[in-house]
Amino acid sequence: MANREEPDTSEAVVVALALQKLRMRGGLVASRLRDAGDGSLLRLPSVLEHAARHEVEPPEAALQVISKAIRELANGTHRIVADSVLGAGLLADAYVEHGFDDRVVRSLRATSLMQRRTTLLANWRQLHLAIGISAPVAPSDRTLRGTIEPEVFRQLARRLILPDPLEPDEPDKQPFPASARRPRPAGRVIVVGGAVFDFVWRTNVIPQHETSTLADDCLLLPGGKGVSQAVAAARLGLKVSLVAALGDDWFGQMIVDHLRDENVDTSLLKIVPGARTPLTGVMELSLGDSIAAVWRNKSAINLGIRDIELLSRQITDADAVLATFEVPLETLHRTLELARSGTGHHPTVIVTPGQPYRNDRLSRQHLGMIDFLVGHTWELKRYLPPDETRFDPGRLAEHLLDRGLGTLCLLENGSGLVYSQTVPELRRLPTTSSFSKVSAITRDAFCAALAAKLIDDGQFSVGVAAWATAAMECAAEDYTESSMMPDRDRIERKLRNPS
């Protein structure tokens, strides 16, 4: 597994991830702080206190507070790295005085993160000498990205979650009201599933056997149900960690970078040295229909029982666990057992049965450990009663609920069917649109939104089902967009304005 050392508090995790996202957005600039995703940095108690005390807007306050935190980093290398990768320009005067060419100084504040990193590494030793410290051995680009930068952001986060101290000339000022100090805590979610890299061909027709067709577009994207559900949950403001196995090749690094950019914690990933990351070839039609072939590289990439057992505390402490059939059956079984092993609190367990196991199925015991099974009809044929010769969703649901399953959600185009032990009156998912194309991605949005709303409300209800369905419909409507997984505002707008 990757490094599992956790920051001192959950707040530090959120702030460190927000800094990583800011790095990708072009750096430490007030306008980018104003537009930054979930606004985690703007809601920091230290930022709110600074804004109130100095009568400035939160983006400007965040700029000043983060800049101060960078200057106060005790480790000189960390100051240089933070200043460079965030494009802050706080050390520019020292670099100029040391004789650096103006082009180098400008490059360290370039819009492109790649350009800032390249300049930092090319001038590593001289940048250290410019601020009067000796330079450690210059790291590789990979070490800078994967080890040094996360540690720098962790240290910055620790400083930023502290209250902004009163300044010497303001002894009588009162701190910002305690009621405004902390945002409402986000739910903790663990996703156990697949991480693959997708090659997506968009076309108007799926070619027949021994024929070919022209594609309108070709995309290379991080994928897998585990990745998609983790990203979807993070977009909803949840604190998300992904548990998955991948290689340390270029595709694996792109997946890790994507997750970090989306505020998903990557510390629980199992990264296999020298292994090739699983790949998927997808052919996608204009309305979202698709076919796919998955290469899992099972001989090298495997998330086993031992990997899951190392995470028992994280699983039992979570508010929700989202799991998929992308992991081996025995690994899924152990995940379910751990989710039910704690005393008192148990996380809500939501399982996606894709891809279906070829020759195995969940045992009766483990079906009883699942709160929500969210699937398509073709994935669940194996779970029909033995005497059934045709697919009957009602008989399937009766069979599964008799074996202890909490709720079955069968998704279909336009809406979906629900069979629940807790809300027996609900039979069809509430829909806000006349058309919604259900796909693997929209199902991932549904599962993430279901987890988020259950954490909010504490129990399943018609309103929870409506909110999750609206998230699915948003993802269907936005499937051509780069940010197709909806945030909370997008879902609420959908519920207010269905058409």
TrEMBL record:
One of its GO terms (molecular function) is kinase activity. It comes from the Bacteria. The keyword Kinase applies. It comes from Kribbella caucasensis. InterPro entries: PfkB_dom, Ribo/fructo_kinase, Ribokinase-like. This is Ribokinase. Pfam families: PfkB (PF00294). GO terms for biological process: phosphate-containing compound metabolic process.
